[in-house]
What we know:
Blueprint: H1 2-8, E1 12-17, E2 26-32, H2 44-50, E3 58-61, H3 70-74, E4 77-87, E5 95-100, E6 106-111, E7 114-124, H4 131-179
Antiparallel strand pairs: 1-2, 1-7, 3-4, 4-7, 5-6
Amino acid sequence: LSALLDHVEGQEALLVSLPDGSRDVVIAGDASTDDGSALLEPMARSLTRMVSDRSVPLVLGLGGEAPLSDLLMAQGVRTVAIAPIFATRGLTEFEEVSVAFDGGEPVSLRVASSLVGALVVAAGGSSSWGDEQTSLLHGVAEVVARRIQADEMLAIQQQRIRELTGLAEVARTMQSGADV
């Protein structure tokens, strides 16, 4: 997150996670350029929910789609960007979607993803927010989403291994009784 702040000239960044099946948010990571109080943390839940129906980052304030609150402006924040993080969780049912690329024949895709978190960046001072910063934020959010998916798949794999180990133990116990 610190490297992201350096590249977008931000002053605070949060990685917000939505645990599976929970309505609460968890601050999975944060970074700040100063030692002041966390401006975004109290708003993490609301900011994350603001992008639940978007596939691209929402930018508020200078260079954004809507103005910032007076409270944030008074604290020196000029722009807040929120990038949604969508990923597949667990053994989600897939939905068939038909998509035509570049006007070609429709292709059937299997899609199943849900909002698993958000990447929130606040920028202040004289820094100007533009398409380059938004694109970078979106790219980092996509990388985080792929990492979350990989972690989820690894957890499922480990669960299956435990289940198979248990079944093998039951089979051994049953076989040893039959051998007697």
